[in-house]
């Protein structure tokens, strides 16, 4: 059971809830603080205090006062008018993370909502309902207005959801699970949509998947080293110790551990004096990629426990303050930075693919083909990898350097953080396919070298991956291999590549 306090949620907690279906509950202490915070809002309304978004319009309409009898309609109109998302919906996991993060942010007790509203979010999560939320339409300030409005619709029994693998109207799902739509009170609509939970949810999923993929890229690179008789001296601990980057030292240590019993790697001067950079500099490059991931973890951990609402209600001091915590710049920068690590993981992998298939760079059969000339082997797999890497380079352009004014120039600087996060996730998916292609080529290469000479860890990786993709004995439709292996890498538990999950397409 994950208990929401508003300030103690971890990335591991999110994984347990969204991927392992652990239940969520609201902390009793926080429930009391939330009730007090709501009471403060009610008292201020009775005092006729002017409060943005509570008894005024929104954005450029902030100077328009709203009559008391219209306050609930104001919140409903807000959700309906702001539900302008377009495009394909987010993956169900991302939608569920958004629900969890919104509940956690409101649980801090600075947003002036009722506990019932937060409980509705938790109930939706616990029964396995995921809102259908279009991916496009957010500027990343004032928060993720459009995506979160589609989330808010579900609380009201409107919009669409995913439930038990089917897309349906929200009321149909509610009837199946016994949930009842709620009505919004003053402030509650704004509290639901003023935040960074869309970009942060995409960022969290990207982080969790990238962490796993980096471990897998190291294991794949180690197998490539065996296929190319890579030189182990460049991974000596002293080499990396004297530079001092912790992540670089850790990558080198893991490669040494993976290949410690390999009979296929070589020593300096045994076959050649040194390897090309894509082999020799694996720790330096992937170590830097790990640095971008660690930075992302630090900032995401802060943001998943952040109050990103506006205005904020401080009950102890009887204050209502309009601020800008909804601005997504910290996450926009974070995701743009992480994109560099994702891009370079693919970039160096594609160059190793080239070294595996190019007969001018190795002594393996040309393009790893069983019958070079008659059969093309892995020739066009390298093309696909190159295409994915090039696409990543265009997506790596920082979204955060762009801004378009909105709401009649009242909201005149925005973060584009959700675009940055979406691009990072798209790049991750491209990179996973590049790693899959390298793994296919590396497996073929070690077969020529002798799999009985492989290290124990790479041999186990080879055997499990061979269950997904058979050896290349003749040309076939390699697209199926690439997608199968990429799916397997995605569904494997952490770096435990021995765990086979998901469906595998077979050859007819």
TrEMBL record:
It comes from the Bacteria. Its main location: cytoplasm. GO terms for biological process: L-histidine catabolic process. There is a cross-link at residues 141-143 (5-imidazolinone (Ala-Gly)). It catalyses: L-histidine = trans-urocanate + NH4(+). It is found in: Cytoplasm. Pathway: Amino-acid degradation; L-histidine degradation into L-glutamate; N-formimidoyl-L-glutamate from L-histidine: step 1/3. The modification 2,3-didehydroalanine (Ser) is found at residue 142. Its EC number is 4.3.1.3. Contains an active site 4-methylidene-imidazol-5-one (MIO), which is formed autocatalytically by cyclization and dehydration of residues Ala-Ser-Gly. Keywords: Cytoplasm, Histidine metabolism, Lyase. It is an enzyme of class 4 (lyase). One of its GO terms (cellular component) is cytoplasm. InterPro entries: Aromatic_Lyase (IPR001106), Fumarase/histidase_N (IPR024083), HutH (IPR005921), L-Aspartase-like (IPR008948), Phe/His_NH3-lyase_AS (IPR022313). One of its GO terms (molecular function) is histidine ammonia-lyase activity. Signal peptide: none annotated. Belongs to the PAL/histidase family. PANTHER family: HISTIDINE AMMONIA-LYASE. This is Histidine ammonia-lyase. It comes from Ornithinibacillus bavariensis.
């Amino acid at each position: 059971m994950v208990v929401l306090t508003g300030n103690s949620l971890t990335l591991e907690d999110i994984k347990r809830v969204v991927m392992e279906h652990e239940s969520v509950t609201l902390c009793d202490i926080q429930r009391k603080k939330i009730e007090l915070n709501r009471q403060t809002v009610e008292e201020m309304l009775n005092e006729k205090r002017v409060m943005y978004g509570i008894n005024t319009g929104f954005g450029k309409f902030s100077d328009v006062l709203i009559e008391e009898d219209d306050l609930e309609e104001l919140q409903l109109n807000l959700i309906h008018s702001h539900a302008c998302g377009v495009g394909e919906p987010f993956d169900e996991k991302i939608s569920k993370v958004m629900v969890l993060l919104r509940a956690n942010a409101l649980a801090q007790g600075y947003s002036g909502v009722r506990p019932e509203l937060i409980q509705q979010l938790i109930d939706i999560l616990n029964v396995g309902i995921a809102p259908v939320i279009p991916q496009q339409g957010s500027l990343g300030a004032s928060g993720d207005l459009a995506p979160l409005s589609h989330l808010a619709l579900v609380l009201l029994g409107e919009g669409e959801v995913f439930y038990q693998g089917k897309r349906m109207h929200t009321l149909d799902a509610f009837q199946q699970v016994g949930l009842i739509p709620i009505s919004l009170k003053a402030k509650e609509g704004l509290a639901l949509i003023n935040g960074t939970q869309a970009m942060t949810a995409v960022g969290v999923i990207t982080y969790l998947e990238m962490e796993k993929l980096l471990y897998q890229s190291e294991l794949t690179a180690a197998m490539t080293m065996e296929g190319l008789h890579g030189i182990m001296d460049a991974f000596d601990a002293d080499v990396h110790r004297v530079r001092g980057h912790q992540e670089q030292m850790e990558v080198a240590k893991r490669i040494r551990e993976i290949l410690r019993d390999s009979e296929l790697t070589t020593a300096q001067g045994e076959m050649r004096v040194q390897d090309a950079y894509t082999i020799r500099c694996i720790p330096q490059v992937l170590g830097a990629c790990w640095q971008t991931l660690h930075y992302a973890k630090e900032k995401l951990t802060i943001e998943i426990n952040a109050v990103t609402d506006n205005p904020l209600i401080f009950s102890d001091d009887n204050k209502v303050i309009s601020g800008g915590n909804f601005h997504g710049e910290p996450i926009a920068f974070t995701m743009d930075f992480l994109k560099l690590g994702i891009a370079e993981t693919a970039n160096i992998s594609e160059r190793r693919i080239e070294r595996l298939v190019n007969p001018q760079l190795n002594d393996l059969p040309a393009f790893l083909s069983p019958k070079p000339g008659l059969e093309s082997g892995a020739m066009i797999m390298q093309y696909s990898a190159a295409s994915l890497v090039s696409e990543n380079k265009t997506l790596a352009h920082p979204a955060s350097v762009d801004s378009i004014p909105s709401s009649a120039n009242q909201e005149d600087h925005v973060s584009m953080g959700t675009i940055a996060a979406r691009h990072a996730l798209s790049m991750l998916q491209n990179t996973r396919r590049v790693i899959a292609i390298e793994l296919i080529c590396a497996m073929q290469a070690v077969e020529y070298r002798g799999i009985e000479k492989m290290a124990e860890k790479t041999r186990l990786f080879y055997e499990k991956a061979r269950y997904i993709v058979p050896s290349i004995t003749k040309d076939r439709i390699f697209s199926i291999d690439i997608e199968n292996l990429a799916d397997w890498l995605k569904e494997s538990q952490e770096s435990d590549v021995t765990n086979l999950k998901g469906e595998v397409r077979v050859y007819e």
